Amino acid sequence: MTKTVALVVAAGRGTRMSGDVPKQYRMLAGQSVLRRTLSSFASHPKIDRVIPVIHRDDTPDFAAASAGLAVEPPVYGGDTRQASVLNGLEHLARSPAPARVLIHDGARPFVTVKMIDYILEALSDADAVIPVLDVHDTLKRSDAGIVSDTVDRSGLVRAQTPQGFGFPGILEAHRELAGKALTDDAAVAEAHGMTVTTVPGLEENIKITRDEDLERASFWLQASNETRVGSGFDVHRFEPGASVRLGGIDIPHEQGLAGHSDADVALHALTDALLGALGDGDIGSHFPPSDPQWRGADSALFLQHAHNMLVGCGGTLTHADLTIICEAPKIGPHRDAIRTRIADILGISSERISVKATTTEGLGFTGRSEGIAAQATVTISVSTR
Ligand code: MG
Fold first, then answer.
1. Same domain, yes or no, for 202 and 246?
2. Domain count for the chain
3. Residues 248 and 184 in one domain
4. What is the pLDDT of residues 87-102, one digit of tens each?
5. How far away, in angstroms, is 308 Cα from ligand 1 center?
6. Digit-coded pLDDT (tens) for 228-269
7. Fewest CB atoms within 10 A around its CB: which of 111, 171, 185, 211?
8. pTM reported for the whole predicted model
9. Whether residue 144 sits in one domain with residue 243
10. How much distance in Å is there from the Cα of 236 to the middle of ligand 1?
11. Within 13 A of 352's CA, how many CA atoms are on the CB side?
12. Ligand 1 mean position to 254 CA, how many Å?
């Protein structure tokens, strides 16, 4: 049974921002805001399904933002945020219903693994849980630039998302209160008589609403990040066949490559380089060759998994440099296709990928055309928060 679903609401038009692209699709340090948000949930071990709710007009942008991530096809939103959430909940109600749902703003890309954990933990004995922050500034009521009142801030908190709910309760609440213009899901829950429990929110879990939020977010990402380098190396030997899978593409050759998966030596080296930079084991520990589910597997999955781990902890792949070592097939004619394919798999710009090839001048096992070797170096930027 599906226990926990994340509903990521990204159907807004972003009218408070400049430019033609809605705020959730704006780029933030090389990735769209929404991709960062989706990755946080898609890579979380306690989230079983991720359902994005988007605007119909954003379908192409969404395809780019979600490429390679473990998220489901999107549900289309309504005219208001509340209507969009209801569409998402109704979609869930048509499948075997989950026990609980986290509803999150697509424009809050800095949600952390820990924060999701806090909310799920609190939700085990509450109907509704929201993250909140204290109010430190003095609050005024102002009318046309003139202060009319100082508002008592005691007891006031600022609500963030993800907001967690038991699924049947929040579905019923949203159905009952459809069209009532409530600004968050907790307000819908409260109006329905549910008890809403709070947990501490995170100051950096901002909602990207205005241009300056994007600037602030980009500054934070840079200021709190450190650079790490990882290296990977792999070898696969030739076996009878008619093509080799290299860098995610099939290249015609008089032999194939032997291996448990698709034997893509280039993607294996890249995956290991990423895992190395993350300090989290190697391709064999994440995808054991003894596990039959990886037999013949598309190695793009391995690379995506490692990249999702990186993105899930708020990191970015700055650059990947791949060297393929063999006498044949000739890599040169396929270099651009490999570069483009790797960029597609990772959902990043191909300018951040380098593909090189060399022979070993007839020396050693690659020189004797017994197999292909690949080595990779990646540079990542990860948060030190
Ligand atoms: Mg391998």
1. no
2. 2
3. no
4. 999 999 998 999 999 9
5. 20
6. 999 999 999 999 999 999 999 999 999 999 999 999 999 999
7. 211
8. 0.68
9. no
10. 6
11. 19
12. 20
